[in-house]
Amino acid sequence: MKTFDVIVVGAGAAGLMCAMTAGARGRRVLVLDHAEAAGKKILISGGGRCNFTNLEVVPERFISGNPHFARSALAQYTQHDFVALVKKHGIAFHEKTQSEGSLGGQLFCDGSAREVVAMLLAECAAAGVEVRLGCRVSEVARAEAFRVETSAGTFGAAAFVLATGGLSIPKMGATGFAHEVAARFGLGLTEIRPGLVPLTFAGEELALMQPLAGVAAGVEAACGRRAFREAMLFTHRGLSGPAILQISSYWREGLPIVVDLAPGRDVAGGLLAAKKARPNAALRTVLGDWLPARLAAALAARFGDGAMAQMRDRTLGEVAALLRGWKLEPAGTEGYAKAEVTLGGVDTAFLSQKTMAAKGVPGLFVIGEAVDVTGWLGGYNFQWAWSSGWCAGMAV
Ligand SMILES: Cc1cc2nc3c(=O)[nH]c(=O)nc-3n(C[C@H](O)[C@H](O)[C@H](O)COP(=O)(O)OP(=O)(O)OC[C@H]3O[C@@H](n4cnc5c(N)ncnc54)[C@H](O)[C@@H]3O)c2cc1C
Hints:
single chain; alpha+beta; 7-stranded mixed β-sheet; 7-stranded antiparallel β-sheet; 23% strand; elongated; binds flavin-adenine dinucleotide
């Protein structure tokens, strides 16, 4: 049996950060992953450009059973620390230009997400970390130390780090490994569900949405007291786009979402004014001032789409109410196949917020998306992976 100080399972964002940090401290580190390539989710992230962090990281932008849990790790290894690392490797990046009212601070590579993976692997190599890919882990046991049975042999270490992420995108190799192993060692799990995921609709709502597939509009999408002002996209199954992905993480089955199609605009006043100023214009034409033409036509059709002069003031009031607060009842989500993240995971009550060490199981750590901490869209999930990975890397 070959022994190390630390074994990390998962060569993704969190696992590689943990490994390079521990390696740089002189720890002998082995990283195992069943995939043939490291950091596959990093490669596909941000449309291939990796939105690797956000300039405005605040704990309130993370969802967890314990909203305070992420605070310590995010403060110990910040977005500025990661930006410094990116700069050290000469990776060019930019802040995404933001549309009116939407969240800013999203940092993307100018070139390719490959540069981020290459950076992490270079840091691991410089720190003497051994990375074994295409390696299946069949058994994890703990006596004096951890003993890990794999397709590449048996390995031992005093510290064992679970960094295998969540269930999203199973066809890329996502598994419930971290959750299963954590549970076997007595750690609690919270309910898990897909997050940052397109919403699906049925019946009349879907019938209206389907022909609009491909149309995008700037909206404010709300669920309960949460609201996100961003772009929304119609799809063949319902709705997607950043506004919908964000609100999906707060949506629960049976709850409505409310979409404001003209955020901040006086639609009611504008329609009455248009009735006077442009009496011969069709409703769809006037709505086209605020909405994409195809969407304007579809909504106007619901109200008869007559000339403005023929529309009753009461009807125009209903049109305005629909635009400013379109109440929709999602049938479901597109599930883990399309979800960017998994909400829930290893219960934070069983982990140290400073080190990510499991309480009551010396040497066991859980980091990254496997933990019940999920960020908003916009680079927050990678920042959680870097921060939690760094904290564990400093503690192992
Ligand atoms: C399409 C898409 C785009 C995204 N874009 C962004 C973005 O731009 N910005 C952002 O902040 N977040 C983004 N995310 C979310 C982000 O990718 C994840 O939150 C982040 O990768 C989690 O890091 P992690 O290290 O915990 O897990 P992962 O990066 O998922 O790494 C887990 C690793 O564990 C390995 N593994 C899994 N099971 C096993 C097993 N049984 N045995 C051995 N190895 C195993 C996997 O192969 C993988 O290498 C995106 C997600 C998706 C799906």
